[in-house]
């Protein structure tokens, strides 16, 4: 169990769980809410920073560490990326010293729209990140265009299997969280939360438009070696509090992923973390 509460990624010492540079003691600039040190009782590491830039820098550092370890161990680095505001956090990777030829990019979910459509997660990730790094085009697994959600999901799972093997184990899933606690295209109360076998599933009735999508399922996220959430801003504070609460989180997809996975990291800025409970007696 670990919580990093950090002013910058240049601080020290390093977190014993995630190896990210962090402050073990609370900087005086952070609110008294957290106390001198803070621990949240869950199977995860929570990293709190005072600015979006600090979150982005730490997030990129975390990804690069996983990339180095994965390439050394398995000869490749497989990443599932969400859309929304998350691609903007990846801009710090542009000049990173890594073997881009070994990176494989998947999408945690995708809308069934053309790849150049404003709603396309592929377009969002391409514009913010992929267009600025030399990852081979064949290593970027986009949704099959021109087909419906069911065929697209079947095709996507087949292509994931051809790269990852039957275990379908991504090295990391980089996830965001919606204002209702959804992640990927897994929404509260939706039947897809009961999916037990498919790793990529279609959804035709998304409560958030557009309605037709494909998404990684809970089994796919459970198979990933690591999961990292990023959530920023005061507007997310109440939902972050609920998702990370052991009881309230059970009804929320992001909370289900957090509870079921043994290696989850949450990257938050101070406003997003402002409603989290604190423990200073440990």
Summary tags:
282 residues; alpha/beta; 7-stranded parallel sheet; 6 helices; 24% helix; globular
Number of helices: 6
Shape: globular
Taking all Cα atoms into account, the compactness measure Rg is: 18 Å
Ends apart, CA distance between termini:
11 Å
Order of helices and strands: EEHEEEHHEEEHEHHE
What value does the average pLDDT take?
86
- Measured by DSSP, the beta-strand proportion falls in 15-25%
Secondary structure tally: strands:
10
Low-confidence stretches: 5-14, 16-42
Instruction: Name the strands of the widest sheet in spatial order.
Output: 1-2-10-9-6-3-4
Structural class: alpha/beta
Structural overview:
With 282 residues, the protein is α/β, with parallel strands linked by helices. Helix content is 24%, strand content 17%. The chain has six helices and ten strands; from the N terminus they run E-E-H-E-E-E-H-H-E-E-E-H-E-H-H-E. The protein has a seven-stranded parallel beta sheet with strand order 1-2-10-9-6-3-4, with helices on one face. It is globular, with a radius of gyration of 18 Å. The protein starts with a strand and ends in a 13-residue tail after the last strand.
